[in-house]
Amino acid sequence: MRKSTKTHSSLSLVSVVDTKTIEQITDHEIGKMLNYLRITGFRVGLLLNFKHAKLEFKRIVR
What we know:
By secondary structure, the chain is α+β, with helices and mostly antiparallel strands. It is 23% helix and 27% strand. The chain has one helix at 27-40; strands at 16-20, 44-49, 56-61. Helix 1 links the parallel strand 1 and strand 2 (44-49). The longest helix has 14 residues, at 27-40.
């Protein structure tokens, strides 16, 4: 008799990506991302800000 083994992964993939060129990520952008996640049904989103030489990013989980 074979014993089956199941592997579960806790890998969370980004579902919605929103790119910006703004001074900084604010509550307004976070609120918009939460709306995008609610509408699409995805759980994870990523905000990317390319305005400055150093990349600013924020991971949003619903």
